[in-house]
Design brief:
- The protein is mainly α.
- The protein has a two-stranded antiparallel sheet with strand order 1-2.
- The chain has a domain of 57 residues.
Length: 149
């Protein structure tokens, strides 16, 4: 193949004219997503955090839309809606399983709980075979004495 000169460039399929090609460092989508634009998850989270005015038990109060959805789901499940019950149970099971993975230090973190746990551990350790007093006659010797008699 012949070496191409700087000025010669064959224009064709997949080879646009150099004057229309993107310059180095320039994006093809100049009007693309601006910096700081929110994705769908961020927009959804922001919308769920927004507060609405609700009348509950004759009193008006502002609660988040997330709380409104939770209250509505629980009320429908309690009313016997067969589609809401499994949805609610799946959500509560997921929350319970998240708590099951935590260690005992995270579950029992009050001073009273720690005191109870320390007492239980001390009681278990004191009843283990390592801490039981050994008999005056070794078990093997005692067996030999019984056989000879």
């Amino acid at each position: 193949m012949a070496k191409e000169r700087k000025g010669s460039y064959e224009v064709g399929y997949g080879k646009p004219p150099r004057s229309t090609q993107f310059k180095p460092g320039r994006s093809g989508n100049l009007a693309g997503r601006p910096p700081g634009a929110k994705n769908f998850a961020a927009a959804l989270d922001e919308e769920l955090k927004s507060r609405v005015l609700v009348t509950e038990n004759g009193r008006r109060k502002r609660i988040s839309k997330r709380e409104v959805i939770a209250k509505h789901l629980v009320n429908k499940a309690a009313g016997g809606d067969l589609k809401a019950i499994p949805l609610l149970l799946n959500e509560t099971r997921a929350r319970e399983n998240e708590g099951a993975d935590t260690g005992p230090n995270q579950v029992f973190d009050s001073p009273e709980d720690r005191t109870v746990l320390e007492n239980m551990i001390a009681r278990i350790r004191s009843s283990s075979p390592e801490h039981t007093p050994s008999p005056t006659v070794a078990p093997q010797t005692a067996r030999k004495m019984v056989r000879r008699s």
